[in-house]
């Protein structure tokens, strides 16, 4: 006898995060209940118009804003950007190039270089000393 698999569900906030959209901008019916894994997969495979519109124009959650600006979420916080931004607002910031944006992009680039250096160093140690590395 095989046991029937239970349906895996998640809160709307988790589903919105996985979809890369701001929860408060989603339709009421999306926010009203749980989202199954199958429903999430269907939304990702064939997004409805509301999801395509949110991904295209926003408002976008912090992670998406940070990625599109090339900064970290911490960088957004340091710049006191706490609200979701639209695609137009992100484009305006990129065009404007305020000092905080240039500084935070540099900070992120430095952090990424350091991470790459540490990864290379760790992988080099493993090759040199496969037993104790």
From TrEMBL:
InterPro entries, per this entry? DUF5997
Q: Which Pfam families match?
A: DUF5997 (PF19460)
Tell me the segments the record calls region Disordered. 100-133
Name the chain's protein. Answer: DUF5997 family protein
């Amino acid at each position: 006898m095989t046991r029937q698999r239970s349906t895996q569900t998640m809160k709307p906030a988790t589903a919105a995060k996985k979809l890369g959209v701001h929860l408060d901008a989603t339709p009421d019916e999306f926010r009203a209940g749980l989202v199954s894994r199958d429903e999430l997969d269907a939304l990702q495979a064939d997004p409805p118009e509301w999801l395509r519109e949110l991904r295209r124009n926003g408002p976008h959650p912090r992670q998406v804003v940070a990625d599109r600006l090339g900064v970290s979420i911490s960088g957004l916080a340091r710049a006191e950007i706490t609200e979701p931004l639209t695609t137009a607002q992100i484009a305006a910031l990129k065009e404007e190039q305020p000092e905080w944006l240039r500084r935070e992009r540099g900070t992120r680039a430095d952090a990424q270089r350091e991470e790459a250096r540490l990864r290379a160093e760790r992988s080099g140690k493993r090759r040199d000393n496969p037993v104790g590395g």
